[in-house]
Amino acid sequence: MSLTATSTLVGGFALAILVVAGTVTLWRRWPRRARLVLRSGSLLLSQIMIVICVGLVVNRSEQLYPSLETLIDPPKAKEPVAESVTSGGLDEWLRARSQQGAKSGLAFPWQPAGGGHWPVTEHPSISLPAQYFLQPNSRFPVIVAFAPPGTPGWADARAAGRAGDPAIVVFVHPHNNDAGSLKLLGTDLPQELGRDLRTTPDRWSAVGIGKYGVAALDLARRHPERYRSAAAVTPPVPAELTAPAKALTALSSPVAVFLAPGVAVPSGLPVPSPVPVVSPSASPTASARPTPGTRGTTDRLVPKPADPLTAALRWAAAQLPAALDPAQTAGQVSTSATLPPSAPPLAPSTPAATTPPAHAPTRPNAPGAGR
């Protein structure tokens, strides 16, 4: 149960008004013998409902507890762990699958140690590019895609997401699309991912699919130190993207909106002239890499009607910096959100999407199942 949803807030206030109104109406109508007890009980119940309503408002404003589960059993505070420069917690497990991964990349379900309290319907899915295995000392940028369960086109989207610089693609399936449910994912997910994999500390990209479009843009706005760009794919109400898109523009963060075929762009949505996108099946010479937006602007790509998710991941990959080699990771890596994304040339070929091993564990030495 979400504690930050509008329906929860409205229901709480409606119930409080009903209790207070009932107390006032029945104040002189209670039976004489039980009047003292009933009056005291109704007053106490009214005060409790008022306190609950105030608590819901404060919780929604501060995003303290996104769900009832986190209120009853809050996650334990984690001690800070130093990030490894040359290896991640899953590297030993991945090394045993390096032969397959070096050819076409690797995909597997991920069960982080601290993910038990995450508001997700299933374990996140991770796709690693082949370069992750070919460059064992490098760190890679990340694309975090928030999607409803059963989102189609996962394999094709992963391949398209690798069309630019190699990147780690993570698919997450949250319980709902309010900002509170994504707060834990905005802070805990990058920390856990950085412990398990070799990731860059900043300039990631957030992609929201369907109803998660607004939440992805809001996540990038709340965490500019981590997310450099954001995209929304086929949002049900495109007009809702106007405010978060303008907020990201003020932070000089690139924004992209990928609408379903036939959907008109709202007049208030800040999108400039479209940039064509070629189908991933086209030859490398015929494909033109999208040009990242300049600082303080937003970008929109017009995808092929059948593959808005593919086009969105191609755009997100174009916003990411190149992988950091050991010489770069040896020093202090900047986490400034104002740095423009790098845009090296398009990779000559796209690694094929792969299916994880049938018995691939989600954690080292723990059995699991591939997608």
TrEMBL record:
Matches recorded under InterPro entries: AB_hydrolase_fold (IPR029058)
Domain of life (superkingdom): Bacteria
Keyword Aminoacyl-tRNA synthetase: no
Presence of the UniProt keyword Transmembrane helix in the record: yes
Name used for this protein in its record: Esterase
Region span, Disordered: 276-305, 325-371
Low complexity bias (residue ranges): 278-296, 325-340, 349-371
Transmembrane segments: 6-27, 36-58
Keywords, in A-Z order: Membrane, Transmembrane, Transmembrane helix
